[in-house]
């Protein structure tokens, strides 16, 4: 199939009908690139005048065709979200003269996950290579980009949303010439020896994401591109992109008769954009994300940062009955595959399969009896695994899944399904949730987790008043208000390891915590350093509030420990932004 509207203008309505028919026909042809799963294929010639409208119409219609087809006021609702593989991968082949690139797009959330160059080589958007798992089908044999995740912050190399906003409104010119250049760059892409992607390739990815994915979601953005104005994104349009999930959720809830509770109440994220009703929202969006059931519980703290967080899960701990047989543990959330444990990390004590070490406690007790799990049980030789991730907080907007690779036994998989009432009831629970993954032969993986509806991704850093390279041992734990003594272990070592030679920070095994907005976060530090002046102990707990950036000082007799806490809430829209 080939879209070229030069031909359309010459042949009139018959040729327009033929183009739509060919696009539709391609949706049911199995791709040679996927042998185990149906794929849908579209082709768009980016330098052919006028072909964009026909392509986008076919793309949106294709995304609306799935077994659970649903519409809200004529707007297609996407397929139910899945954690690992979507029901279909949509292949969009972009053509610019002799150059071509094919985009791999999920049909459940319209995320671009990878692209193929003209030589047939697939490249997958991912975080750090050693901490990422492939999500594209195995037959693609994709190479991980390593430093280009699916989020704009990662692709653009920006650490905060303010920088993303500035780059999107100044660097993403939507003229056809820039789109052609983007196709040419991806068509001829060759990886560097290291995990490095040059800025021009990054910008090309962003432009094509906006051209295809974002424009399918946001009608106002599509109208701008279709009109040929050639301008960059406006501040309002960027906020439309960031709030697409929120608008989808509100429209779906409104269509289910919950308008008295949800809509059109004043929304702190949407009202500054002039969005105060479902009717106005329907003029902005096109496709709607298939959002799961709303949480049955709404914490008292939600109003403090309403709309600044999103539904996320915090993995408090993972325990195995057979730790030495585990190869890897990976978490998928429909966007990323994050490796949170690998067996080869056991090179020294910090990489041991257990987080704390203490003799005594047996592990045959039921979960319910282990209220003080993080401290009592984590100290045993059969304690919870020393996790090294995630590097980004795990989304629970739809589903998340845990994959366990067991040496000699295969791969085992469990999916938390937000569309299931049993799992949905766990959102904002006052106590941690638990699940056991049966591996067979009396073996199991036990997971403790908390799902929060308005959680903020939070980075933690611990800096010691010591010279760089000093050896330290001990542990650092993050505990969320309301979950008792159970917490996420960020660092644990009985054999001393060196702190950073650059800034004297502790080499945390994991530094990202998902925290409900407005809830307190307790960081417990218990470290021992071997210095030229003898042994120095640093022990205390600092407290901070979810959603608030702070540098907490932990004063000890050996100096002040700095605990740097950096949340990443959504950037709030302001009135009058253009």
UniProtKB/TrEMBL annotation:
Alphabetic keyword roster: Hydrolase, Plant defense, Protein synthesis inhibitor, Toxin
Family designation: Belongs to the ribosome-inactivating protein family.
Pfam families: DUF6598 (PF20241), RIP (PF00161)
GO biological process: defense response; negative regulation of translation
Phylogenetic lineage: Eukaryota, Viridiplantae, Streptophyta, Embryophyta, Tracheophyta
Reactions catalysed, as given in the entry: Endohydrolysis of the N-glycosidic bond at one specific adenosine on the 28S rRNA
Name of the protein in question: rRNA N-glycosidase
PANTHER family according to UniProt: PTHR33453, RRNA N-GLYCOSYLASE
DUF6598 domain span: 384-564
Source organism: Oryza brachyantha (malo sina)
InterPro entries on file: DUF6598 (IPR046533), Ribosome-inact_prot_sf (IPR036041), Ribosome_inactivat_prot (IPR001574), Ribosome_inactivat_prot_sub1 (IPR016138)
